[in-house]
Amino acid sequence: MRQSMTLIPTLRELPSDAEIKSHQLLLRAGFIKQIASGVYSYLPLAKKALDNIEQIVREEMEKAGAAELLLPALQPAELWQDSGRWYTYGDELMRMHDRHDRSFALGPTHEEVITSIVSDGVPSYKRLPITLYQIQTKFRDEKRPRFGLLRGREFIMKDAYSFHTSEESLDDVYLKMYQAYTNIFTRCGLDFRAVLADSGAIGGKDTQEFMVLSEIGEDTIAYSDSSSYAANIEMAEVNCDYEKSAELEKELTKVDTPGQKTIAEVSDFLDVQASNIIKSLVMIVDEEPVMVLVRGDHELNDIKVKNALDADSVEFADEDHTKELLNCSFGSIGPVNLPSSLKIIADKAVESMMNAVCGANDDDCHYVNVVPGRDFQVETYADIRFIQEGDPSPDGKGTIRFARGIEVGHIFKLGTTYSEAMSAKYLDENGKSHPYIMGCYGIGVSRTLAAVAEQFNDENGLIWPTNIAPYDIHLIPVNMKDAAQEELAERLYNELKGHRFNVLLDDRNERPGVKFKDSDLIGMPVRVTVGKKAAEGIVEVKIRKTGEMQEVKVEQLLDVLTNIFKEL
Amino acid sequence: MRQSMTLIPTLRELPSDAEIKSHQLLLRAGFIKQIASGVYSYLPLAKKALDNIEQIVREEMEKAGAAELLLPALQPAELWQDSGRWYTYGDELMRMHDRHDRSFALGPTHEEVITSIVSDGVPSYKRLPITLYQIQTKFRDEKRPRFGLLRGREFIMKDAYSFHTSEESLDDVYLKMYQAYTNIFTRCGLDFRAVLADSGAIGGKDTQEFMVLSEIGEDTIAYSDSSSYAANIEMAEVNCDYEKSAELEKELTKVDTPGQKTIAEVSDFLDVQASNIIKSLVMIVDEEPVMVLVRGDHELNDIKVKNALDADSVEFADEDHTKELLNCSFGSIGPVNLPSSLKIIADKAVESMMNAVCGANDDDCHYVNVVPGRDFQVETYADIRFIQEGDPSPDGKGTIRFARGIEVGHIFKLGTTYSEAMSAKYLDENGKSHPYIMGCYGIGVSRTLAAVAEQFNDENGLIWPTNIAPYDIHLIPVNMKDAAQEELAERLYNELKGHRFNVLLDDRNERPGVKFKDSDLIGMPVRVTVGKKAAEGIVEVKIRKTGEMQEVKVEQLLDVLTNIFKEL
């Protein structure tokens, strides 16, 4: 493509409202343009990069056995009422009325539409399983759109849906999708992790998020430094062998700790490690109070408490309620000498504590030399704390590190949530009807573009991985008015295109400084400069990523470029 | 693709609400599925056919020098208020509010968005001209969606926009687009015409519609049987040499014609040809009455009257007004002995009439032997009638025929309509600002798919042209439980794919009758059947279009198929 014929409106100034690198650079490099809050135009360079991502997605979806279709953005309200999401999705669902005052949703996802299509079109077990996908513009009315393409209101997604007669079949496709997603993000050049996630309110089972590691990510991931283990920190199991101290038991003693309430205060005041203090809280579990204990250097994870007690609801008791139960304030709660009606759940780490410190249910007092099992009885020991950096990885391989991540993909075993709500059923070999067992699998395509931009840039601009780059080569005649330069550039443009390189030819009459600055900013992998040595048949090749430059004789250019792209 | 892994929900029954072939067949062959009135899902076969059309469009757009981008569907109301279309577009514009109660349009076209982008991004004449296009889902709230994909409310369009500093530059790109459109519809295999069209209210200049010839089309086209001339009948110029009769002038005579009012009645009663009767009407042109004459066998075109008189408005006088002016009713109007204040405009054909018949401005009477110029004076002779079948083509080549057409493309010189309304300006070499001169160029991509289906089918189903067909070859093992058949089919599936054929393998356990019926219905160009002679290495090749069948030895299959596709 000749640069004179396309639209790359680069900006010299930093856009004032763009907080993060990818947003700033995609704007400055003329890839995108905002039309409304969270709504962007993809200008020609972004369109080409999106095409490359979509092509990778299509190839991997095909390998995974999925067939492509295209569903409408306009979805009649009735379908969403059938699934119930019309009432639960809230303000994020964009809604409208047509000229006959019928209600429609602008699709944020397409479970309802695809379930209705498959329900009509695949009535029998004979045609199952089936996996269908689309790449499509979606709508979600985010409360606070931000970070450019990372959290927009109109965005491009790949969404896939699978339909099964058995859990095993769903497991099989889920695994294929896991592999496809791994391939896709690897081919995009991204540093990412597949992360165990919370299946949340939607009622499904297994679910994993694909997270691109980035400090601007909104989620915290716990991952192993020596294996593929990764999970959202809410989800990460703690799998520690807590060694019991060899210390001898000492006598339980009540000490004055006037005004000392927090773990840090007590630790300072009594000169003990936080890891030797028992943090005690009262929670209301399905309307019954329960005392919950974790080690002073650990954080309680209330989701784990809920799961460990198989409870429907858990919440923290307020200070009045606590006072009523224990006759003390928050900072002085402890498990010793409790009323027998108050059960105790404790994190596994507590079991190994020896001669520890805890609140005495008496303001301004603590116990020291507390021994679990001797001084109080625990109903349930369970994993109820957040994992921490330095913990062993739950899979037994390596040590846990934390990172922040941008969610670019999500695979999800839906089960029968939608098919039951919508009465979508197939007939088995005996003519009996069952709800389809379903999976769904999403990739944020435009978000992936932003994630790549976020991961690959330097102070001069973007640095596109070769698989995503809008063009392979940026070919720059320094001076378009120099006949030798122009002629050689035109010749190379045609020759390189003939060898299947995608070439952007900067045929603009601009100063060399402007051309080079723009070139670094838009970030094609390789720049070929046709300058003063054009008459001698010499050009300059620069690798954007490393900054490495070399002069190359024209007759060797193809070989040099082929080698560079082999290694990039 | 294995048929077991994709979704082709064929129907045996004719869908009750589908009136036309393409709509019926696309539904029955499992290409599309309606989700709401005028809103369709494109199932896997349709998606593949759309991809093929889009690929052709992209290649031709690239050749024409256009760069691809992707604009948002959500467009802030403010942009549409700037252009004025927010107020004039009416109910067909789909509108919505976001969670903050800001108004948006769902884009039916993108003149506003692209003008705003180019206005910001291309401030100088140096970067002009530029042509940008996208392929995108559009929304238009049709009052009566019908004919399936032909008139839907959510549809796929290619829309291109060009920006210029001069009319000559616009002319140049308009011509390039004309050529690109001709190439696109030719490559789609369509029988079409580029038709001169009315630029209508939008205020542009030249405009042509690309019409696929089809009896279900909503527009009538006048085209030459021996040249590329074609126009909407409203637009077609009449370019006849009317020969003056050699007959001698006879004496003007008033005759009684009791109760004879219409041309047919008078023609019968007086035994004269309709072509020798003058049809007379009174029109109100810019508030002044004018008498309008055409030959009795011709139809008046009021748009031509308006253009010929350079009028702002023309309408027919009602009977009361006519009576007041001429003291007679509609059927007796004539140009002889008029009040001098009443000017006459006549079609050119009238000038050559001799000894004709006309009304006598006296009920139940007509004049015979009327001679224009002798018996009445005409202020203006002009082309004011509709062209007719049998007329010479206005370009002097061949004879006019009529056809009905489906509009699939439209190219349009917009001029400065949008840029002026939106104050979108560039700076010229002297730093002076001017509104961009614009063109716009649309193709109904999903409509083109339907038009192809409408043109290519028979009583058994669809017959896809090779360039559009979802798959080249439908490979059918007759009995999947026969090991020899299954094995050979699998082998051929892989071999043919290896030779770049797109193959659909019917690996379903269905009866042969079902497989063959489905195969004819979905209409891939070539069917390869692996049947009883599989063990002998013989398969059957059938060409869908001609029904031609032949037995082919497996080792010759590739050559046979290659030759067939060369000729299809």
TrEMBL record, chains A, B:
General function of this protein: Catalyzes the attachment of proline to tRNA(Pro) in a two-step reaction: proline is first activated by ATP to form Pro-AMP and then transferred to the acceptor end of tRNA(Pro). As ProRS can inadvertently accommodate and process non-cognate amino acids such as alanine and cysteine, to avoid such errors it has two additional distinct editing activities against alanine. One activity is designated as 'pretransfer' editing and involves the tRNA(Pro)-independent hydrolysis of activated Ala-AMP.
Entry's EC annotation: 6.1.1.15
Protein name: Proline--tRNA ligase
Cited PANTHER family: MITOCHONDRIAL RIBOSOME PROTEIN L39/PROLYL-TRNA LIGASE FAMILY MEMBER, PROLINE--TRNA LIGASE
Quaternary state and interactors: Homodimer.
Family: Belongs to the class-II aminoacyl-tRNA synthetase family. ProS type 1 subfamily.
Keywords assigned: Aminoacyl-tRNA synthetase, ATP-binding, Cytoplasm, Ligase, Nucleotide-binding, Protein biosynthesis
SUPFAM superfamilies recorded: Class II aaRS ABD-related, Class II aaRS and biotin synthetases, YbaK/ProRS associated domain
Domain notes from UniProt: Consists of three domains: the N-terminal catalytic domain, the editing domain and the C-terminal anticodon-binding domain.
Reactions this protein catalyses: tRNA(Pro) + L-proline + ATP = L-prolyl-tRNA(Pro) + AMP + diphosphate
Compartment(s): Cytoplasm
Domain named Aminoacyl-transfer RNA synthetases class-II family profile: residues: 52-465
Species this chain originates from: Siminovitchia acidinfaciens
GO biological process annotation, one example: prolyl-tRNA aminoacylation
Pfam families linked to this entry: HGTP_anticodon, tRNA-synt_2b, tRNA_edit
GO molecular function: aminoacyl-tRNA deacylase activity; ATP binding; catalytic activity, acting on a protein; proline-tRNA ligase activity; transferase activity
